[in-house]
Amino acid sequence: MRCGVSPKSEVAKAIAYGCKRWTALTRLVDDDRLEIDNNIAERAMRSIAVGWKNWLFAGSKAGGERAAAIYTVVETCKLNSVEPQAYIADVIAKIAGNWPASHWDELMPWNWHRADEQTIAEAE
């Protein structure tokens, strides 16, 4: 194998694994936004995995898909330092108040600001 290591050893398997994924491994050097592991995603999913038995009662496939959509919104809010309950309440109110479709991008968690914060910022 490589450097006199037995091809069936654990070290050889680890070296082969790294070599097969060399392009992905070296992307970390080129792009400092990338994480070396997926711990952030795993921590985000932990609360869902812990209560997996509860999700058996989603009622239907559509119910499960809706729950997944809500969890996606909540986790996206958390990643963008937005309080999920305030965000969802505000967005629902804006949509119910005939928010123009051409401005939906302003409602995304990474663009959203609380109405009172926005008003204060505009007043200054």
UniProtKB/TrEMBL annotation:
Transmembrane segments: none annotated. Residues 72-110 form the Transposase IS66 C-terminal domain. Residues 4-65 form the Transposase IS66 central domain. Pfam families: DDE_Tnp_IS66, DDE_Tnp_IS66_C. InterPro entries: IS66_C, Transposase-related, Transposase_IS66_central. This is Transposase. The lineage of its organism: Bacteria, Pseudomonadati, Pseudomonadota, Alphaproteobacteria, Sphingomonadales.
